[in-house]
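Sample pair:
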Amino acid sequence: MREINSKSNLLKTQAGQEQFEDVKNVLLDLKKNGLIKDFQENINVAHKDYKYKSQFKIDFKVKTIDDKYLIIRTSKSYRHDRAKIFFYDFM
């Protein structure tokens, strides 16, 4: 049973990494074409009310041409019961 879980987890990790790279390539194209100013990847941010600095992981922070920011988090699966935590508490 462990071997099946290990293989399953490996496939999920590989799929997630491929998705991350696909999004990164799109962002690189957008930057090259002047549609975004810049982006950063793999950022850890703190909860707004706590000193701990690595509460949440952001896959991409995109700076738009009008100096606003977009936060992108890639995943092959989202647990609906945990969406609130990331989307409302990280800033």
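The mean pLDDT is 81.
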